[in-house]
Design goal:
Number of helices of chain A: 13
Distance between the termini of chain A: 50 Å
Radius of gyration of chain A: 25 Å
CATH superfamily of the largest domain in chain A: Response regulator
Order of helices and strands of chain A: HHHHEHEHEHEEHEHEEHEHEHEHE
CATH topology of the largest domain in chain A: Rossmann fold
CATH class of the largest domain in chain A: Alpha Beta
Oligomer: homodimer
Number of domains of chain A: 3
Largest sheet of chain A: 7 strands, mixed
Structural class of chain A: alpha/beta
Number of strands of chain A: 12
CATH architecture of the largest domain in chain A: 3-Layer(aba) Sandwich
Chain lengths: 347, 347
DNA sequence: CTGAAAGCGCTTACAG
DNA sequence: CTGAAAGCGCTTACAG
């Protein structure tokens, strides 16, 4: 019942440690015959490598780059904070994480950042990107140079990215639609959607999902044309205020992107008896407070800590050519109302 | 910028490796003077131990026992499955997890199981327990014999347990109350609660939370006396069917404990135009299907995988006398509706 | 294509 | 109270 090691496998296969290592890690230069012997021995002994010993023995560490949006979007800032925290923790896993900020709204800048990545410097890249042809090309080119690429938060659908880390945004939009429909009485009214930009695929997908549910199951609700708030507090505030003033029948409001702080300010300034049911995204301190106060009715969230750790694990699996655990890497769509806010969050 | 090791610290402090190890791991038998020197050196070099090397070097592994309820409660079965899966994965962290099943409803059996635990055999125990005097005493006694104890899922409040791994069940009940209140039109009606047993503190707390919200914010809803379904499918089905037949004004139904499969069967058998808004707990395949079908309106959940891993981490931290990361060990109250069901769950 | 030996950063008896 | 040395299970040059 004692642990079987690489020594045991070597002995049983009648080869040296080095050869076992070669076979087990799929390194080249071993005869098929020898490979078979070693694999059989490992199989029979039910050998499981010790990753601690392995990580201790190898000196080189894998280097991953996280390309995140710059600017004051609170969720993206959380994401960056989590990346830095994770960078600390994974240091001992022999992976080095670095974070670089780029302007997500500037396609050319992002494309050039991607194309300037040196394959000799990074084994993998995680990127939050717009879904545009120039970006797709840059990602394809990067992968051809041998760098693994995962997309983060917003997917670049047809690009040859290795993996997408984020939520199903159509489903997230459907959640918003369902909550608005269920929270509202069965009576006519108008629902407004404010997104950052439809050029970001996650925003477009949320709009699509929300609209689909509303149209299918709540036909008495009228969905107004989508407004763009550019993920900006000031612009979002203005947009929301205009809506609140010009649409007396407004009963539902869904902020698809960021700028939630502006949305909250607008709702507070335009307080009226019949406040619309309001849904927004991401658990930031301001959003939590607004939920607490009743200004917001629900929050649809994704956990930035999980996402960063998932991206790092996936990149590592890609480099090591090991399988990923699908269930573990699925990012959940979280729903928060006042009652299940994590304690201490509004501190 | 190269990694500083225990060798560097030893050199700088002018002592041997063994002494550095003694100081850093708070082992006895070092002069205060020497301790100070070593600590200063570690500080100045910003030394961070490599846990991989440490775990590789020490042969003994920590042994933890998980005492879980026996029986067919699907959530508890998930919990057991996660424990076994985790047992596999943490083997290389030098911790050995074992699972033992006991009858949770039998206080004497649980108390005796606790008192029979040999401190020479286990460093820590995680237990799902009723909050009864005999259990508290057994836990206290176990801790006095030097075994760390964490309570799992349902807390034993005044016992000297080291930590509780689970959700805030009062808050979970409040979520149920809020969802029922918000999903329902503003009109009179009756709400029924079915729990397993009020002797389990998690059930009692959920009842309390749900009732508090309903009474405070939805005074036009009448909360019926709580029924007990013993976490059993058959009993829960009967209880639900009786309610559906005898209470024509029933508009809300909250299944606080297990037995959800029976609840679903009852709702399907008694299909009527005005089905009550129904909330239950835990994401099991049957519950997911019922959510999909519209028989259930929402599910309030806790992630059994997270809970098992958290319990293992906390126990390990207790043994190693290291700090726990509070945020990481907080178990979230998850809300599922049809739209955010993890893909493939009803598969 | 294969093997012997050193070394990764710690911990652990064993001496003294 | 302190230190020298072996060893944990792997990987990595270096030879051959």
């Amino acid at each position: 019942m004692t642990k079987t090691t690489i020594h045991d496998v070597a002995a049983r296969a009648g080869v040296s440690l080095a050869t076992v290592d070669r076979v087990l890690n799929r390194r080249p230069g071993v005869r098929p015959q020898t490979i078979a012997k070693v694999e059989a021995a490992a199989q029979e002994l039910n050998y499981r490598p010790d990753p601690y010993a392995a990580s201790l023995a190898k000196k080189r560490s894998d280097r991953f780059l996280f390309l995140l949006p710059e600017g004051r979007n609170p969720f993206m800032q959380q994401l960056a904070r989590e990346a830095l925290a994770t960078a600390d923790r994974v240091l001992m896993d022999r992976v080095t994480l670095s974070v670089r900020h780029v302007d997500t709204f500037d396609k050319a800048a992002l494309a050039s950042a991607l194309s300037q990545i040196d394959p000799a410097e990074y084994e993998g890249v995680a990127v939050v990107a717009q879904d545009a042809p120039v970006i797709r090309q840059a990602i394809d080119a990067l992968r051809e140079r041998g760098v693994h690429v995962v997309t983060l938060i917003s997917d670049v659908a047809t690009a040859g990215r290795d993996h997408f880390v984020g939520v199903d945004n159509v489903a997230a939009g459907r959640v918003a639609g369902r909550l608005i429909g269920r929270f509202l009485p069965q009576a006519p009214g108008k629902v407004a959607l404010i997104c950052g930009t439809l050029a970001l695929s996650d925003h477009a997908q949320r709009v699509e999902g929300c609209r689909a549910v509303l149209e299918a199951d709540y036909p008495y609700l009228e969905v107004l044309p989508v407004r763009e708030g550019r993920d900006d507090d000031i612009l979002t505030r203005e947009t929301a205020s205009n809506l609140l003033k010009s649409e007396p029948e407004l009963v539902g409001l869904y902020n698809v992107g960021s700028g939630t702080r502006g949305l909250i300010a607008s709702l507070e300034a335009n307080a009226s008896p019949g406040k619309p049911v309001t849904i927004a995204h991401e658990l930031t301190p301001h959003a939590a407070q607004a939920l607490e106060a009743g200004t917001l009715d629900a929050l649809i969230c994704q956990d930035p800590g999980h996402e960063i750790r998932s991206a790092a694990r996936v990149l590592k699996a890609l480099v090591d050519n090991t399988a990923i655990v699908k269930g573990q890497e699925r990012i959940r769509i979280e729903i928060y109302i006042r009652e299940n806010l994590p304690f201490g969050f509004t501190g």
